[in-house]
Amino acid sequence: MSFQPILTAGLDPATGDATWHLDDYVKRGGYAALKKIFAENITPEAVIAEVKKSSLRGRGGAGFPSGLKWSFMPKAYAGAKYLCCNSDEGEPGTFKDRDLLRYNPHQVIEGMAIAAYAMGTERGYNYIHGEVWELYDRFEQALAEARAAGYIGQNILGSNFSFELFAHHGYGAYICGEETALLDSIEGKKGQPRYKPPFPASFGLYGKPTTINNTETFAAVPWIINNGGDKYLELGKPNNGGSKLFSVSGHVVRPGNYEVPMGLPFAELLKMAGGIRGGRRLKACIPGGSSAPVLPAEIVMECTMDYDSIAKAGSMLGSGAVIVMDESTCMVRALERLSYFYFEESCGQCTPCREGTGWLYRVVHRIEHGQGRPDDLDLLNSVTDNIMGRTICALGDAASLPVRSFIKHFAAEFEYHIEHKKCLVPPEVQKEGSKIYVRPSC
Amino acid sequence: MLDIEIDGKALQVVEGSTIIDAAHQLGTYIPHFCYHKKLSIAANCRMCLVQVEKAPKPMPACATPVTNGMKVQTHSEQAVKAQKGVMEFLLINHPLDCPICDQGGECLLQDLAVGYGASASRYQEEKRVVMNKNLGPLVATDMTRCINCTRCVRFTQEIAGLMELGQAYRGEHAEIMSFIGQTVDSELSGNIIDLCPVGALTSKPFRFSARTWELARRKSVSPHDGLGSPLIVQTKHDKVMRVLPLENEEINECWLSDKDRFSYEALNSPERLTRPMLKHGGQWIEVEWQQALDYVAHAFKDIAKNHGAAALGALLSPHATLEELHLGQKLMRGLGSGNVDFRLRQSDFSQDGQGTPWLGMKIAEIGSLDRVLVVGSFLRKDHPLIAQRLRQAVKRGAQVSLVHSADDDQLLKAHAKAIVLPSQLPQLLAQVVKCAAELKGVSVDAAITALAVSEKAKAIAESLLSGTRAAIFLGNFAQQHEQAATLQALAQLLAKITGANFGFLGEAANSVGGYVANALPGADGLNAGQMLAEPRHGYLILNAEVELDSARPLQALAALKQAATVVLLSPFKLPGALDYADVLLPVSPFSETSGSFINTEGRVQSFNAVVRPLGETRPAWKVLRVLGNLLNLPGFDQDSSEQVRAEVLGAATPTPEFVTDRLANPLSDVANNVANNVAIKLDAGPNGLERVADVAIYSADVLVRRAPSLQKTRDAASPAARMNAVTLQQCGVSAGQELRVRQGEGQAQLFAVLDAGLPDGAVRIAAAHPKVAGLAAMHGAITVEAL
Q: For strand B738-743 and strand B783-786, is the pairing parallel, antiparallel, or unpaired?
């Protein structure tokens, strides 16, 4: 198959850190899409139509059709409108935006400029996760380059379209990746999700119409404009257009980001990452970041990597963070770590999540530490029942889904823990699996 | 209108309503904690989850807008399961020790836990502990009980105007706290106690002193500022234990200022006077009522006989009831003296006879104004809840402009501000008049047209003319100003030109009532200023500390000291009076007497005693009535305060709700006023420093000065000499330095404080405090020297 990468085109991991600059990007064909728009007088409506045609879906996790989202922005709005890029990548297992901003920041800038043009916004912010500070610095430098070259700023490329873009960094709170919490954080408030409705398209940043997209979504836009929405869709599967970056981590030989066309079989992706380490067998996989339900090996091996196939299997493609676990993994211990994350990252605003995530963690913790009780699994399911669908944002669901899926697919392991006060997976096997892994040829 | 159905009952609601609004319209209760009708929607407690047809998940009733045809189930299985689930979460980390919680018995969480909580907890882990916070002397914290509903946070931000509380940290570690090292200093802070649905925020003065079910609830009216907030006074064993707001959308909404809420502590003060006392040979002795009253009657009769009745004067308090003021003036007039006044802090009386100053409109209408000019007011501290209404009006788009001599932060976004020396206020206001007159093409006095107009004056005039519902209010500072009449005339002229409503923000609970009761000098009588400038032989003082409450404390004290007889009717042994008075008669504070206050909008509010008088204390109206009998004066045979009130207000309408028909801010005579009665003096003022005096919020009256918790607040800090940097430099002193301040014959020792909000040449020294009672007057020239 002759797949040509879109997001990582022309990038070489070995030299990537040196080729992120504007000149390199232009050499790779960068800013052609933006130039094309003004050269060919493509209307904003036509840009949105092209993105709709491409079936590009939000790469941040929710998979909402991007063209549709863009069309929600009120056209004839008198005041300011805003465009935000969500680079607050903080979910365990997800590290794709980090590499995009590291190796190809201008592609994100170009994508944002095109989106701004399509929606008529004159001001944008890229909210960058606070734990990747060097990328914030790099993005600021990239912005300076783009500004100097006239790709952003006043009267872009001699047109009468102006777009100012700024970098904004958080301080590492996972919740600020929730789009309305991100807006509050930009406004200088404590990052806490807002109750919706109203949605950002009508009441967003500073109360003005705002569109928020993921870094990877923006990065895909220039290619769509250059090559057409149809071509993009052809790369993937119907309703699942284009290519996608998958962050493969865990017990694989070559963890890393892999750009593949949507709809690639999971087994292929696993092969690209070098397969499971040490010849062990695959036990389970979280296909879309830590909040996606876990899938056992036999199910995930049948899946293709696209929104619909993974959803059908009972999980979510999410942000494309593929966490691979082999047979040396204790599922109780893995869940304990995940539950701790959500307990620690709950914003504390609404009751079920504030109180419930701590409760979940504590019960999983006691099972892992040999103090589980026979009815603990029922209790966990009941607590997740009381959290899911009752919270302001999706963090409550995100904390509950792993718990439910781990118990659903690996109930025997949990029951063993409770009954025998120890792990089904022998400690020496676990120890072997969690050794620092040195890649054979690298 | 939208058609919806709640629990099978159909109703129509206006567009934009939420489900909880609609449910309230129907009388259906939906459990909730974070929702409050006066605060923004947070939707964080999740207690109000209800089932909405076609919605996959339960929806929060407080935040879900109603759509046409919506069908809501508030008690369906899905809704109740969700509500019970939330209740379980709320309780897992909440202490289950209601018997030792001060909120027990009046706790929303406790009440709802009965309906939605389980009898045992499935949560077996350790509970969260949250360290308590010091929020100041009024609000106690028990933060482990907090359920993070953020009502208090939203209150400080949205109603009180300053975000003094916030939620820090994340998730389970989230805590409500003030800024590090700061207390909550709002003059409305006590309301967060009412708002807190659990026992996290409770009343520091009240906590652990009684249980809610032991307390009787009695209605009363606040005796402090001109708003006249309706109160619920809670009592136990004839002792006032605490005060809560009695909700009235037209007056206080559901709020109370801290002054109204916590001043009750003074009612139980050890300074209370409980037996009549006479000074005998320089010694105070306790006597029977009969003896004391006989003494007073004889003394007054003697003075009237030997020196003429005009040698007697009555200084009444604007915090006294309508009935007391009426009988006080009637007694004086019966004795033949027209020397009666209750306006002790006023110094310009040249508008007397020109009307009865009042708000000129309903308090409730303030919120619908779109243009407001407030002249000379320490708005937030003098009228906390009127300031709150203006704050909400500004949020709705109203423009509020301020003309004043101190730029205190009113916590509302002022459209235009002009801060000038007190002596320059008339000129500044005249500039606004000139500008408005030019814009409207109206001709005004030549003295006004000759003025140069400043940018600020222009902005204010333009703002007033650009709206549809404007009002101009004169604050306490303007009413106490040396040229109050000029300010009034100019403000009235401006109101006439701009079509604005004109009114006064009444200083005290009965600032209007005093006029209605005619507690004023007649044609032959002396006003408060004259009575003290031209000392009398005998004084009758009701409920006032004249040496603190008068415009010229030094003069007042001298007049009282030289008098042959000073009779004080007061609930307290006032320390100053122990020196100058001859008779102390213990009379009831508002809690121990029936009576009426007429608030600044002309609303008559009557109340009954909530507890029995302390010791030998008697209601002042009864004391005055008996005194009238002893003096053989006619018309002192009333049997009840209601009869006295009927005498004042007219028997035909014994309880009129409003007396606005007999109040007047005479707008129609403005032109004449300016031309004939009040010469607009726009002179330069004193050459040198000028005093700016505010009456600090917790030293405004006899009662509040004795409320210990209020006296511990930052607002009760000891007076200082405040100056801006230029003035400090001009005087050669620096902030923090101790100064000697001289005014007239008097002086005081104060610390210098930098206050950037003052105009050059102004020295701001609060009045009504013993520390500054040695200064001559609330205004005028003053000198400062380093000590």
A: antiparallel
Q: Please compute the mean of the pLDDT values over residues B357-377 and round it to a whole number.
A: 96
Tell whether omega for the bond before A265 is within 30 degrees of 0, i.e. cis. Answer: no
Q: For residue A386, which residues of chain B lie inside 8 Å, CB to CB? A: 82, 85-86, 88-89
- Asked if A355 lies within 8 A of B89 by C-beta distance, the reply is yes
Measured torsion, CA atoms of residues B455, B457, B463, B464, in degrees rounded to the nearest 10: -160
Could you tell me the two tokens for B70? Answer: 């919506």
Of B57, B125, B170, the CB nearest to A346: B170
Distance, CA of B317 to CA of A364 (rounded, Å):
69
> Can you say how many angstroms the Cα of residue A185 is from the centroid of all Cα atoms in its chain?
19
Task: Write out pLDDT tens, residues A235-258.
Answer: 877 777 789 999 999 999 999 999
**A380, A390, A393, A397, best to mutate vs chain B, most B CBs in 10 Å:** A390
Question: What is the DSSP code (8-state) at residue B356?
Answer: B
Nearest chain B CA: its distance from A295 CA (Å): 25
Task: Name the CA radius of gyration of chain B, rounded.
Answer: 28
pLDDT for residue B679 is more than 60: no
Distance from C-alpha of B514 to C-alpha of B571, rounded to nearest angstrom: 20
Q: How far is A412 from chain B (nearest CA, A)?
A: 23
pTM of the complete model beyond 0.80:
yes
Contact B313, B606 (CB under 8 A): no
The pLDDT of residue B668: 46
pLDDT score at A231: 92
pLDDT of residue B677: 47
What is the end-to-end Cα distance of chain B in Å, rounded? 72
Which residues of chain B are within 8 Å of residue A346 when distances are taken between CB atoms?
170-172
ipTM over 0.90: yes
Which residues does B69 contact at the CB level (< 8 Å), separation at least 6? B3, B4
The separation between CA A13 and the C-alpha centre of its own chain, rounded to angstroms, equals 21
Asked if residue B682 has pLDDT above 70, the reply is no
* Beta carbons within 10 angstroms of residue B669's beta carbon: 15
pLDDT higher than threshold 70 for residue B681? no
Q: Which of B325, B228, B330 is nearest to B658 (CA)?
A: B228
Residues across chain A: 442
How many Å apart are CA B785 and CA A228, to the nearest integer?
Answer: 82
Q: What is the pLDDT of residues B244-255, one digit of tens each?
A: 999 999 999 999
- Residue B613's alpha-carbon distances to A3, B238, B544, in angstroms, are 94, 8, 19
Residues B663, B727: Cα–Cα separation, whole Å: 42
Cis peptide before A198 (omega within 30 of 0): yes
| Cα-trace Rg, chain A | 22
- State how far the Cα of B90 lies from the Cα of B107, in Å rounded to an integer: 14
Phi-psi region of B248 (alpha: psi -120 to 50; beta: other; left: phi over 0): beta
- The span from the CA of A226 to the CA of A221, in Å, is 9
Report pLDDT for B672: 47
Amino acid at B177: M
- The pLDDT score that the predictor gives to residue A12 is 84
Question: Residue for token digits 């006295």?
Answer: B644
**% of chain B at pLDDT higher than 90:** 91
